[in-house]
Amino acid sequence: MDPRVVSRSKWLAQRVELLEKEKAFTRNYDALVAQRQSLPWVLVEKDYVFDTERGEESLAALFNGCDQLLVYHFMFGLDWEQGCPSCSFWADTYNGVGPHLRARNTALVAVSNAPLARLLEYRTRMGWDFDWVSAGRNSFSTDFAVTFVEGDQSDNQRGYNYSNAYREGEHPGISVFHRLGDGGVAHSYSCFGRGLEAANGAYHMLDMTPRGRDEAGLPFPMQWVRRRDEY
User: Fold this and answer.
1) Angstrom distance (rounded) from CA 80 to CA 65
2) What is the pTM of this model?
3) What are residue 147's DSSP bridge partners?
């Protein structure tokens, strides 16, 4: 028998002890969320134009009637033939949540630099239906610090994940915007790196298991991830 197998009473005692720590973590998380929601906003002053299924649209139009907008910066470069496997993993978990977000006055859109036709072709392959638009003809991705071009450090907010690290190429992120009463748009929040895990339900489910993500022996944590039609 596995040495970790104990009596129900011993298991229950340790489970109750862990529950108190989980409750403390939840309270701390609630306080962190409140601090995040109290951040000031920054007016978006550039007139970004995106290529969408509906034609050219401004950032304000992407709200689609909502007051809040979540943008997932999906790694899909201008000359890439297919989307990033890790971003595809994330997309599998947030695809379908749009109606629930809209019930709370929030829109969700994925933004990438690749041409729109290539994005939609890949979306069809993967069976997704979320709104996906191309920023390949504007500076949105560089300004919001997910795309870095050698020699270009304009408006990209101190490098990737606020680290002063100007790592050339494509990177993932989430940016949040709010529509203003005068028709303008404000930027309220962005996160990168492990901050994106909040949008990946699969990772949180794995975290409930004894082995968890089981990534310790891999060359890098997400080495195991494939596009779901490639496993």
Assistant:
1) 32
2) 0.94
3) 170
